[in-house]
Amino acid sequence: VLGLLVWALIADTTYHLHAAYGWVMFVSIFLWILTVLFFVTYLLQLQLKFYMIPWPLVLMIFNSVATILYLTAFVTCAAAVQPTSWRQWDYNRRAAASFFAGITMITYGASTFFSFRAWKGLGSNAATSQVTDRA
Question: What's this model's pTM, rounded to 2 decimal places?
């Protein structure tokens, strides 16, 4: 949802006049599509059919790359916002897109952390952390 907000806010401005927003649009749309594809894969449990793929590792790599790409998109978008724009609504939408790009970057960063824990097997719950070898 956050990535959708970023590209919807940028798409509603005159982004084609500024080359920096082309990068932000590419990052936000590309990662939004890939995120939806991963979501559908897990929703339909297709990862069970492709058991030879190390899904925790794939998700960790995807989330870390998405975090780095959104970092560049956030910095680019925030640096390109001009408060003296002749179109006030463009300024508001671009500033909001910068904010949501930052939030999306943080969200992908948190997902990277949890993907790393899942990849290393550090994520456990009450059922898997029971001690059974008591003497």
Answer: 0.80
